[in-house]
Amino acid sequence: MNAQAGIEVREISYTQAIREAMDIALSEDERVILMGEDIGVYGGAFQVTGDLVDKYGTDRVMDTPISELGGAGVAVGAALTGLRPIFEFQFSDFATLAMEQIVNQAAKVRYMLGGAVSVPVVMRFPAGSGTGAAAQHSQSLEAWLGHVPGLKVVQPATPEDAKGLLLAALDDPDPVMIFEHKLLYKMKGQVPSGRYTTPIGKAMVRREGSHVTIVATAIMVHKALEAAKALEDDGIKAEVIDLRTIRPLDRDTVLESVRKTGRLLCVYEAVKTLGIGAEVSAMVAESDAFDFLDAPIVRLGGAESPIPYNPELEKAVVPQVPDIIEAARGLAKGRT
Amino acid sequence: MPDSTASDRNVPYAIRAYAPDQLIDALRKMYLIRRFEEGAEDSYTRGLIHGTMHLSIGQEASAVGACMSLTDDDKITSTHRGHGHCVAKGADLGKMFAEFFGKETGYCRGRGGSMHIADVEKGNLGANGIVAGGIPIAVGAALSAKRLGTGAVTVCFFGDGANNEGAFHEALNMASVWKLPVVFVCENNRYGMSTSTERSTAVKSIADRAAAYSMPGERVDGNDFSAVTEAVDAAVARARNGDGPSLIENVTYRWRGHSKSDRNRYRTKEEIAQWQERDPIARMAAMLTEHGIIDDASVAAIEKNVEQAVEAAITFAKDSPAPRVEDATRDVYTPRAAA
User: Based on the domain organization, do A187 and A241 belong to the same domain?
Assistant: First the structure.
């Protein structure tokens, strides 16, 4: 590995890690601009852009009007013509206002034009529940975008990956959608200084185990790791895979693990039906890894309901650590 | 230049502003658009083209007039009714027909068809299948030009239907707030599919909506080549000068139906005939003849030349190879160099 002089690993938050990635990109490449609602002097609704406007000015850290559709379209047009915009949605829920530009334009322009152009736009989506913001500010819509060929969709679970995947997204010639779980913003972790990238399309085994494979995304990775620790007391060794990218899926890492453990538990916060868990389950069922399964696949996902306001109800509609422990115990029965 | 002075108000703007060869070329492009679309329609009727198409016959002065002062570095965004814009910006007819025929030699290698033709080298960022889909993209292209200091202007074509989409409002507002070099050219052909502007649009003149975005708005006879160039050239100059966006409304009419499924039940034959009397090409030819720039013989020669060009383009398209079926999913993503 090329040890870059002056690289140090420090503990910083997920938010700081994203900001650091944007700072690096802005300082290295004049074509990079940030766009979004209240990302300038306000610092962003979740303080992700912070004080970057002081360093780079309002021409490069651009407050947009409250115009998600138009703003996303401006970012697409700018990306088509030489800029590298990073467009922040204030909440991922507001992607619903901009689906036209994301799905019909950003994702398809290259294909429709027979490969004549690329659309190197990066969009960031603060997602997920747990903040008491209720049904219109708490959704997990990543699978919606994951269904669209032409897009790449990532869900960093750690500060290190939040920085590495953002820099990888900027290096990518195609549109990359980054879903950031809001409860991760304050989480701290070890993050190298300087530039590095985390590969898009590669999952990561966060904990090795031999009895059950838990495939998780975003905040569920941490819940799965907590569950895995508790399961250890029961003698159950859970392998926890952080999917990191949901389009394109890292087939090899998942299948290899399932071949080893023979049990699969998918955990994700988005509504269970037609979600990423269904895709991962089908991927296993359609592969040779199916022959290694010793038990039916189990999915834990969000309830078939909007996200409620009351904190106890809010917790009840998304998988929690005890749910994961219980599901894993059921799966591993007879295995240990 | 013709024997008139810039102050001679009896001489149309276009005659004063452009050299004879530029005007003759503009007339030729208008004929090219007309014959191209007639050729496309004929090919469709013969079953050589599948899908559908949206013809702009009757609107040629708007497309060609609006592109007169643009260079290849300037951008345009176009619409589902975009063949004219494409030709006006300098596209190759053979590649356009090849795209219609779904061939590998087409502008989109047969992946886009009529509704997605683009010609990036000439600055045409593409037609668009979504009404108003190209408007924010045009503003993005203008943002790039301003930020990168290229001096380029973007002309954003859209129809009267698009002016009732939310994207229109959002994009025009942002273009004005950020003072971007973009010219919004609304081709008001009076119907969004079957619904007339009277029934769909609260203002009488779409140009009036410019006031809501603090930008100049001007409504012109879109079948008058000189009127279109006069309005758009001034808006392009304004944009290039850093003075921000403008909205031009070219009032025009499509002679054909919305698409191939149109049974023309929402308008009368008389109305269509009335507009055909205001044929933009005949008016352009008459203007150039009146000012001694061309004569009947040279008009006939242009027409013949255009017929041949369209015929050659159709032959090229017919003879071109089809894409390989195994390449159906190519170009979804950009290939990356192996690490």
Answer: no
- Residue B238 is assigned to a structural domain of this protein: yes
Q: Do A115 and B331 touch (CB under 8 A)?
A: yes
Q: Sort B35 into a burial class: Cβ within 10 Å, 0-12 / 13-18 / 19+.
A: buried
CB of A105 within 8 Å of a chain B CB? The answer is yes
* Domain interval for residue B89: 17-317
Examine the domain organization and report whether A32 and A116 are in the same domain.
yes
Under an 8 A CB cutoff, do B118 and A116 touch? yes
Task: Check CB contact of A73 with chain B, cutoff 8 Å.
Answer: yes
Q: Which residues, in sequence order, are CB contacts of B199 under 8 Å at separation 6+?
A: none
| CATH number for position A70 | 3.40.50.970
CB-CB neighbours of B320 under 10 Å: 20
> How many domains in chain B?
1
Q: Smallest Cα–Cα separation from A78: which of B78, B152, B160?
A: B152
| Mean pLDDT estimate for chain B | 95
Q: Is some CB atom of chain A closer than 8 A to the CB atom of B106?
A: yes
CATH classification at residue B97: 3.40.50.970
**Contacts with A288 (C-beta within 8 Å, 6 or more apart), sequence order:** A255, A259
What is the interface pTM, i.e. ipTM, of the complex?
0.95
The pTM assigned to this predicted structure is: 0.96
**A28 CA to chain B: closest CA distance, Å?**
15
Is there a cis peptide before residue A248, judged by omega within 30 degrees of 0?
yes
Catalytic residue IDs of A: 68, 137
Tens-place pLDDT, residues A35-46? 999 999 999 999
In a domain, residue B328? The reply is: no
Domain boundary residue, one of A165, A192, A219: A192
pLDDT tens digits along A148-160:
999 999 999 999 9
Structure tokens at A254: 């998942």
User: In the listed set A138, A165, A192, which residue is the last one of a domain according to the structure?
Assistant: A192
Residue A152 sits in the same domain as residue A110: yes
Residue B127 C-beta-side C-alpha neighbours within 13 Å = 27
- Number of separate domains in chain A: 2
